[in-house]
Amino acid sequence: MKKNINLKFIWIFVAVISTLMACKKNNVAVDQSITPPAFARFNTADSIGTYFVKSTQDPYKLPIAITTVSNQDRTVQFTYESLTAVNGVQFDGPASITIPAGQVIDTLSITGLYAGYNGSRIDTVKVLISSDDIPASYYRGYFYIIMRKDCPVVLADLEGDYANTTENSPWLGAYTYTAPTTATITALTATTATLVVSNVYDYGWPDVTYTMDWTDALNKKVKVVTQSGLADLGGDVTDLRPFSGNANLGTFSSCDGTITLKMQARINGGAWYTSPYIVYMVR
Fold this sequence. Notes:
This protein is mainly beta. The protein has helices at residues 2-31, 155-158, and strands spanning 40-42, 48-53, 60-66, 74-81, 91-92, 96-99, 105-112, 122-129, 142-149, 160-162, 166-168, 177-178, 181-187, 192-198, 208-213, 221-224, 227-231, 237-241, 251-253, 258-267, 277-282. The chain starts with a helix and ends with a strand. The mean pLDDT is 88.
């Protein structure tokens, strides 16, 4: 009987020691500090932006963030994808940046090459974080840049004769007519102006008036002012008005030296044409 009692106490003692060991082991596991892996991302609210490439070579700056701080410098690498733009021709994009120790945010600077942009050329470049040691976050791991030449609006450069103007009117169908036009422009505000074009239709019309608006640099607009009673040399009288909405508004380009006019027309009080009357003014 005594032997059995001793064995019972021995088993209880072993059970207690095992429990204490397990608790200690679990406490150690809980107390250990777990450092999450570092990820890099573009620290922006959007994933796309427009870059106007200037002759001053002002760079496009993208903030880069790392999710954890470190006491060592860290390198974030990048790759660039585009169907049309070439690194070194249309832009200079660095292969990597180094974020100093103790910091989690730095800047990637991409420089558009002004000589690589002529006229209305537009490129889209996808910038991707490609580091192996600091992989891209699933959130903001890439950024699209729409690159185009900066074309500040200089009204004096848009005035004068347009010797290569062509017209496509709804009553002539696919036939395109060529005739010279002349533009006279008067500024209204810092981003709007009045445009008066002579020799529209090339058949005796008086000058036609339009408004120019470049408040939105990406959406330069030319809108005809509603005008009635434009009599031509054949005795027909035409009315002009803008289409409803912005789909059929004209535009202009300081880079290209072009103005496109779009109007809705009717002749002799008839029905309004559903196709636009378009005038392409080219130097």
